[in-house]
User: Which sequence fits this backbone?
């Protein structure tokens, strides 16, 4: 609870009286002017983080104010560290968040001077977690020194997340977590002008995932971003077909049909079979490239068994246009023939590209808005809906100015985002470093980000889940990468991510039945509200214990959770969770999807199970409403009560009112759930079959059909049928 005074005098140990300000959840920031010592105290966790300025603090003031994060109380002060510096610490009244600011009054030649906070007194026995400076931001149970957020947590569930809050392309965390924790800039940042300001954000709370969410919500609010819903663009709403690395038609095609003909045939076949793909992704194979690798080494053709044109190469971009050997009459004409919107890939700009004669290219990256406008306009002219920027890690590594100059890094990402916004396209980042996640959260147009390596498979599941935690905290939807429709667990994980679902099967190898468990017959994905991420217990479980990850959907006060677990060891292993650990704070049914059985539990009661080596398990956890009738949802869907199927639930004392959405092709949906006795059922709109009830298990089933009226659903304005049914408790 926030204290009612703006500031108060608190004695730091061994020092004279100091100025302090108090914020939400027992957070206090204090500074002793004479010594320059400052402290952050979390009174609930009994944590203290302490640091010391390079000299005494002068002109210490406290004030009230308000910014995008809400009302705050602020400590302001000055000090010298070879140059004049100003600092402030804001404690927010309604958020367990602190904001640190450092401003230089003089030009900055040494970026090490711009480190604040710099804590050297730390709570004991903290665990550490961050993200490595590698493609797809793999998780590290250590504190990595790069532009990553740092997670600190203890055995009691108290947690803090500390990260840069600005200048993401040149920012870095510093220290080892034992003797130092600091936030500042990259070592080789170019001289900065007087007045340069850097900010750092710190969120604290109870529970690792709750603290990640508090941090991400605060950071995106602070930068003024409006994060996308999980159906915000074509790729997020619908099932798609992908041709990237790992897909069957990545630099490969039917020799008799050609590349365009192969994809046109695939689209025709899927339509004939009722597999509702709604977009087509084109990877790097379709445009002009060189043989030059990012290091300057000369490579080989990508697929030596195919014609060796400028498209069949590994190297950098020469020209962002469809190669005529593949699309004889251009990209737009091909798109019209397949009748699907396009998601299109791009990579780094080659040193030999003629674009360098017309635009400013820094290293391998465009920092000229004109270049971005040209290529995005080209893609938009062919009904491109999403631009995928791949190789971000390579571009950052081989374009030194991006990590040294405040202006260049922003010019690269701002130019991309501005051009996409002007043409109505969205963005996807791929091979992103941790700093790209933070930078990308600034842009409303960035809807998705790759969170694991090429060709999704079991060995990448851990990376996928932990990087999804970073993406989802920042409101960016994770993408697993391509897999095959026969791979049920990969399909389930992609669906539970809340992000994209895309496959890359060879013609004739597709599995329609599997795909229609993830999507409706109109291609709309039935998904959770949130992304699948490791539960809190995974941060202390060790890498050999079974993984337990969860996502959820909220229907008013009713939260359903979806739990995926897999054995990560070589022997059978026990695992367990409680509904409360999943954010379900009331009595609930745990439905085991693999054996179609259910068990009713109290919120703190453990559900235990055993996994054989390589075994996976999937559970749906649904709270018991006030009427005692628990609807699990559509038995034919992986996410049975996702809101693209169960549009609404109204929890009333004596009944549960259920609104069901149908694709235009659907005539009926079979719903199921559990109740202590046979419930009554009635249709307000649409129609029903007779309800079936199994007294021994308490399971009920009923078939629901839509009424004649069609509505338009969501941002895609998809036509849907609808039925509203009432499940009542028998009196």
Assistant:
């Amino acid at each position: 609870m926030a204290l009612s005074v703006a500031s108060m005098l608190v004695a730091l140990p061994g020092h004279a009286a100091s100025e302090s300000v108090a914020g939400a959840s027992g957070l206090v920031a204090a500074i002793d002017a004479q010594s320059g010592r400052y402290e952050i105290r979390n009174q609930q966790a009994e944590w203290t983080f302490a640091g010391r300025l390079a000299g005494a603090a002068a002109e210490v003031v406290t004030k009230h104010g308000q910014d995008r994060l809400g009302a705050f109380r602020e400590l302001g002060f000055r000090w010298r560290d070879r140059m004049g510096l100003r600092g402030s610490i804001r404690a927010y009244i309604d958020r367990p968040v602190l904001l640190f600011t450092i401003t230089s009054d003089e030009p900055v030649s040494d970026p090490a001077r711009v480190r604040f906070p710099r804590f050297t007194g730390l709570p004991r026995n903290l665990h550490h977690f961050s993200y490595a400076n590698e493609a797809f931001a793999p998780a590290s149970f250590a504190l990595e020194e790069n532009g990553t957020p740092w997670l600190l947590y203890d055995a009691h569930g108290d947690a803090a997340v500390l990260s840069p809050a600005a200048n993401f392309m040149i920012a870095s965390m510093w220290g080892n977590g034992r003797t130092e924790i600091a936030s500042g800039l990259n070592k080789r940042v170019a001289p900065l002008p007087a007045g340069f300001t850097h900010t750092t954000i710190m969120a604290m709370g109870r529970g690792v995932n709750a603290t990640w969410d508090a941090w991400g919500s605060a950071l995106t609010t602070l930068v003024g971003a409006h994060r996308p819903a999980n159906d915000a663009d074509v790729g997020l709403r619908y099932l798609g077909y992908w041709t990237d690395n790992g897909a069957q038609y990545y630099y490969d095609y039917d020799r008799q049909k050609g590349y365009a003909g192969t994809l046109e045939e695939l689209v025709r076949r899927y339509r004939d079979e009722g597999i509702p793909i709604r977009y087509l992704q084109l990877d790097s194979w379709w445009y002009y490239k060189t043989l030059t690798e990012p290091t300057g080494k000369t490579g080989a053709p990508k697929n030596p068994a195919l014609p060796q044109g400028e498209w069949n190469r590994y190297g950098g971009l020469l020209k962002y246009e469809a190669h005529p050997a593949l699309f004889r009459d251009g990209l737009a004409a091909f798109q019209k023939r397949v009748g699907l919107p396009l998601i299109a890939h791009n990579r780094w700009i080659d040193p030999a590209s003629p674009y360098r004669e017309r635009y400013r290219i820094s290293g391998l990256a465009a920092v000229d808005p004109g270049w971005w406008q040209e290529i995005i306009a080209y893609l938009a002219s062919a009904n491109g809906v999403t631009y995928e920027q791949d190789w971000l890690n390579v571009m950052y590594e081989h374009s030194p100015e991006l990590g040294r100059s405040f202006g260049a890094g922003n010019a690269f990402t701002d130019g991309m985002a501005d051009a996409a916004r002007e043409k109505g396209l969205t963005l996807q980042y791929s091979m992103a470093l941790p700093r790209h996640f933070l930078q990308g959260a600034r842009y409303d147009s960035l809807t998705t980000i790759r969170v694991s390596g090429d060709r999704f498979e079991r060995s990448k599941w851990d990376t996928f889940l932990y990087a999804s935690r970073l993406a989802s905290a920042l409101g960016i939807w994770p993408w697993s990468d391509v897999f095959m429709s026969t791979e049920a667990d990969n399909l389930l994980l992609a669906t539970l991510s809340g992000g994209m679902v895309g496959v890359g099967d060879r013609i004739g190898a597709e599995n329609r039945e599997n795909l229609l468990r993830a999507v409706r017959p109109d291609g709309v994905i039935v998904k959770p509200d949130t992304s699948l991420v490791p539960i809190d217990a995974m941060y202390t479980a060790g890498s050999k214990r079974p993984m337990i990850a969860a996502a959820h959907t909220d229907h008013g006060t009713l939260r359903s959770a979806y739990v995926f677990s897999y054995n990560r060891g070589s022997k059978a292993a026990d695992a367990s969770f409680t509904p409360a650990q999943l954010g379900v704070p009331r009595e609930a049914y745990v439905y085991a999807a693999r054996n179609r059985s259910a068990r009713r539990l109290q919120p703190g009661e453990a559900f235990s199970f055993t996994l054989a080596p390589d075994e996976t398990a999937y559970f749906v956890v649904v709270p018991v409403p006030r009427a005692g009738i628990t609807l699990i949802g559509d038995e034919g869907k992986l996410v049975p009560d996702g809101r693209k199927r169960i549009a609404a639930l109204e929890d009333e004392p004596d009944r549960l009112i259920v609104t069901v959405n149908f694709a235009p092709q659907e005539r009926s949906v079979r719903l199921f759930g559990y109740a202590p006795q046979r419930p009554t059922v009635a249709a307000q709109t649409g129609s029903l079959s007779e309800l079936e009830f199994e007294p021994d298990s308490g399971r009920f089933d009923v078939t629901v059909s839509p009424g004649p009226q069609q509505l338009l659903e969501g941002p895609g304005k998809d036509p849907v049928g609808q039925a509203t049914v009432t499940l009542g408790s028998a009196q």
Notes: Residues 8-222 form a domain with the Beta-galactosidase; Chain A, domain 5 fold (CATH 2.70.98.10). The longest strand covers residues 70-80. Residues 120 and 545 are 34 Å apart (CA to CA). The chain has four domains: 8-222, 234-499, 544-624, 633-731.
